[in-house]
Amino acid sequence: MRFFYTAKNAKIGDVIPFYNEEEKQFDLFYLKNWNPDAPREEVVYGWHKLTTKDHIHFEETPTGIHGGTGSIVKTGGRYHMFYCTFEQNPDRQWARHATSDDLVHWTDIPEDKFGPDGDIYLLSDWRDPHVIWNEEEQKWWMLLAARENAPTQRNGCVALCVSDDLHTWEYRPPLYAPRIHQAAHECPDFFQMGDWYYLVYSNYTDGFCTYYRMSRSPNGPWQRALVDTFDGRAFYAAKTGFDGGHRYVYGWNPTRGEDSWGIDPKTDIGNDYK
């Protein structure tokens, strides 16, 4: 029995946890990265869903949604998926929206697609939308991996947009912009435990890690703990899921066997880039 889930002929990418209250189970959506030698008849691209009640036994099904990391919320009896897509020439990134009545069949809403404003946020990064309901403000919050328009290359931040209806979003200044990282703060997560609010994000420029910050207010200021990371140096893109009693952290460790970035010495192929 494997304690940690590994997909057959594939690698586990970013995990998007959702607790299914009706079924009392976790539906863990993830980005499936197929191995180059995977049998072509098995390959189904896009988000895949891992269903589990005990974090030991998993059932996997594809969703038909093709895109990057995001989040899922339920309101008014309907599920809302937020994810991201990428374009080239020019390079652009977009927040996307799809809905479902059963967590299996999803309908994309093309008109809800939107990118960075180019004023508060640079046009280069706009991904991993994480949507939550802000009880204090009585609005939906969307956190995104972004880069602020700042006079420094250390402009990675957690962007903030707000909405009343999950369709139209207002740009706000970053929720967290410490100006310490040279890349976007990826896979943001946000939750409250007791009297503390927690902001989680990942970054790969100064340390390949999942970080967290703490605050007494959802608006900050954000404190940095003495040990401000989860797990080890290679534990990445971690997001959390809560079943009402326990909060679990889901991330991944690299197990790459191929030199897909072309930077390994030719004598050390498959060593996870050292």
Features of the shown structure:
17 strands, 274 residues, four-stranded antiparallel beta sheet, mainly beta, 49% strand
Order of helices and strands: EEEEEEEEEEEEEEEEE
Question: Tally the helices: what do you get?
Answer: 0
**Class from secondary-structure proportions:** mainly beta
Helix content: under 10%
Looking across the biggest beta sheet, what order are the strands in? 1-2-3-4
Summarize the structure.
The chain is mostly beta strands and about 270 residues long. The protein has strands at about 10-20, 25-35, 45-50, 60, 70-75, 80-85, 90-100, 105-110, 120-135, 140-150, 155-165, 170-175, 185-195, 195-205, 210-215, 235-240, 245-250.
Describe this structure in words.
There is one protein chain. With 274 residues, the chain is mainly beta. Helices cover 0% and strands 49% of the residues. The chain is built from no helices and 17 strands. It has strands spanning 10-20, 25-34, 47-52, 59-62, 68-75, 78-87, 92-100, 107-108, 121-134, 139-148, 156-163, 170-176, 186-193, 196-203, 209-215, 236-242, 247-252. The strands form five sheets. It has a four-stranded antiparallel sheet with strand order 1-2-3-4, with no helix packed on it. The chain is globular, with a radius of gyration of 18 Å.
